Amino acid sequence: MVHMKLGFAPTRRSIFSAPDALKYRGLIADKLNELNVDFVDIADINDEGLLYSDDDMIKIAEKFKAEKVDGLFLPHCNFGTEYVCARLAKELAVPVLLWGPLDERPDENGVRLRDTQCGLFATGKVLRRFRVPFTYMTGCRLDDPVFERGLKDFLAVCNVVKTFRHMRILQISTRPFDFWTTMCNEGELLEKFNIQLSPIPMPELVDAVKAVKAEGTEVQKVVAYCRANMGIRIQDDALFTVAALKVAMKGLAKQYGCQAIAIQCWNQLQKELGVMPCAANALLNDEGIPVVCETDIHGAITALMVEASAMGETRSFFADWTIRHPDIANGELLQHCGPWPISVAKERAKLTYPLAFEHPGSLAAEARHGKITLCRFDGDNGEYSLLLGGAKGVDGPKCMGTYLWIEVENIKRLEEKIVTGPYIHHCVGVHKDVVPVLYEACKYIGVKPDLYDPIEENVKAYLRGES
After folding, report:
1. Which class would CATH give 168-463?
2. What number is the average pLDDT over the span 226-237?
């Protein structure tokens, strides 16, 4: 599971009840501990452990930076001090969660102790003035299920943002000549998003494969894993090469400090090594290192975003949109030669030969059904967006490679979005509903969310804590 760290900066304002603010400060901290949330407290900054003064804000910012917090939590324990909250958020430049507990009934004399809701209105306004994007979870009780849900979703948002801002992708060779769709603007990705590429030529990969083959130990471990977890339908020498390719790519990713790989999977690789890389890709995908086909850099970016949104609970898979379902009106086939992680398969994967290629080294397995999220980061002409939405796995004809028949709400609407762009025939899927997390993360990274179904109001309702 992924580890995220929150900066916990509960806030108050002097004209409302300080004792009640202190009470709620403690209750919220206890709830975070109960939920096993790692947070940096400010109890050492002042006697109350509350944010309300500029001097303390500077100390809090220094502490949070030193602790490298991934997100800022600003619970309003009474009205709160909106301008100090905004200054702290601006200084940290991390995702911000704005929330406060529901106010109690006024007492018998009409006195209100906290006015938390009113303070949240004020802080939202000042954050906008400071041009600080923030996530707002509407007021609720600490024991309401939506509090835990909203907090965990926010941690996932923090993970997507952190991942997106620190991407480095290993690019193994150029894109295949015929794939003009997978061209990308390396300079623009760096300038706009700080996304870095580490390009290497095909001979460097081949040399790395030869080196790990000669050493042999790690390669034999991978061979043993494959025999234990896959049905082997290829020769021993080809299996050894597939395993060596996996070990070599992992080593190169580590050498260049990369979190994902985009590889020119055909045709030069087959001339050099005699195998397809699909199964090697699948093995790395199962370890949380996404490997995407046809040197699709935007596909690798998508995979890293999806992996981050799932918080390590399940692996993603890289797919082609291919053909309509022959029997289901809104059905579609997601398929690729065989690079999907075996953890998403509903059957024992076979290590075999792919569709349309003569060389061994791809997996064959249908993915398990259930609810999935599909998305695609892409752009052209300087504008970038994230296509995203939901689908469900359905039955369909048997296919080769790794595949899943899906059903969406309206395949014609989705098809039109892909064709008119800026998207292509590649997408990334995951067996989890992460649409709200990815939608919310977009506000922090300068990417436009593009829902392929008209569900934006439903997503917003979910994010603000509605059932």
Report:
1. alpha beta
2. 98
